[in-house]
Amino acid sequence: MNTNLQPAIVLLKDGSEQAQGSSHILTNIKASKAVCDTIKTTLGPRGMDKLLQGQNGTIVSNDGATIMRELDVVHPAAKTLVDISRAQDIEIGDGTTSVVVLAGAMLEAARPYIEEGIHANTIISTFRKGGELAAKVVEAFATTQATDTEVLRRLASTSMNSKLISASSKFLSQLVVDAVSVDAELGIKTELGGSLEETQLIHGIAFKRTFTYAGAEQQEKHFVNPKIALLNVELELKAEKDNAEIRISDPAKFQEIVATEHDIIRSKLETIKATGANVVLSKLAIGDLATQWFADEGMFSAGRVDGDDMKRLVAATGGKVLSTVNGMNATHLGVCESFDEEYLGSTPYNFFRGCPAATLIIRGGAEQFIAETERSLHDAIMVVRRSIKTTNQRVVAGGGAVEMEISRQLQEAAGEIVGKEQFLLGAYGKAFETIPRQLIENAGFDATTVLNMLRTVHAEPDVAFDSTQPESDFNRNRFAGVNIKEEGIINTHAAFVWEPIQIKLNAIQAATEAACQILSIDMTVSNPKHEQAQAQARQDHHAMQQKMANAGITPQAAAAGMGGGMGGGMRHFQGRRGR
């Protein structure tokens, strides 16, 4: 009898599946590439748009973070790309498409070496070394510009040039700079109707007039130096929430009870007026009795004010939100230079001007366009906010110029080392050419021809780019990038195609780490029961969102998971469209 036989050790539950080895790494690369292929056509000023139909309705966008969030992707390794896109959006605000495309290119560069049997750790260590070298190239490539209004406007305009609103980038970039220059939180409101050029910046706070009762039209709509009462008090006669019963022996007592209720409301109103307030806002309802009373007293009132608007009013006017009128006095009131109720189209708005706040009111003819405009302005605002913090802003030339310079220098550095790392570092550097290549393809040009032109001029980085122009440190081949207006190349620095250095540094670091993380995964274990539970949870969640939509309640966008392909909650349409 053979006593050396050992019993089998069972580590996984029945039905569990596992995949491992180099073939599994290649599968993860393939899944990540599917995500990149979905989003790469949105890159740059001539990028295409995506129409997404899901639980949040119809969305038209070419914003990388929005697309990645809305795609119902389920592949576990590819989730990393969604994470870096989300992180780039939160940290910087722009470059969300570039970081995903760049990570995908790095993974594709590693694929043939994985197939040849080179260990993943060798590739990872070389890629990380390449990431450090690339960051040094960007630091040396950057130029310093005084952070004045014109520089900030150009940075905002560059961010908008890849969006639907690119045609109005000059007008909107100035609005963004003016808005960010206000040392206060910026609010954004949207109003359907009108044209994009009717978008306006209010130096103060603005919001739609809330629901009003009879008597509101008789109220004053203009005050100079108003005294603003901010309340969390209900000023309304209403039925009891719980069953209540009052027994009376004399019918005349009923009138006394009603009169007492009115007296309680009037007492509160008198207390508010005694403070000197002439504009009264409350988070809770202000009923018809109070509305008419304020109208008779020459005051303005609005109930059910949104909580976010109330918070901004507190910060901007210096008022305090009170949950009772007892003890209320003039020190609790907010102030600003003026209050007005005005119409935007057919919608009345309340404007509080002359206080440390700013509100952008976006106009447009379609809800999807307005939503995309808001997302685009958010990216530009984030870029300007980061730039305005420094006295001298360091910028890099866009249009693929900095990526071509990174590619050239890394491939030169690869030629100075020996062994497998030489080929790996060269492949990592060549991956950066994906950015200018995609810009060229999205513009409808011949990528091979234009990319060869870029390689030729970047091979002599210190030669004058335009011999007809005066000698200058900025008139150099190293600043050559893609000319998306004409098939060719252009000095993108001289053309003011500038991007803050933080965008590039963060994108390189995030893309490199994402690629290394995916390459380091050599096994995935899946539990079918757990997957079924997750699928059921997603189905229940979608069903609940549908019920909310049917009830007229707009569901909030949930933090999306990821998957190598689009899940059942999202249909994917892909095609070609001329520009």
Automatic annotation (TrEMBL):
What molecular function does GO assign, one term? ATP binding
Taxonomically, the superkingdom here is Eukaryota
Pfam families listed in its UniProt record: Cpn60_TCP1 (PF00118)
One Gene Ontology cellular component term attached to this UniProt record is: chaperonin-containing T-complex
Instruction: Tell me which Gene3D superfamilies the record gives.
Output: GroEL (3.50.7.10), GroEL-like equatorial domain (1.10.560.10), TCP-1-like chaperonin intermediate domain (3.30.260.10)
Entry keyword Magnesium: no
Location relative to the cell? Cytoplasm
Name the PANTHER family on file. Answer: CHAPERONIN
Q: What is this protein called?
A: CCT-eta
The organism of origin for this protein: Carpediemonas membranifera
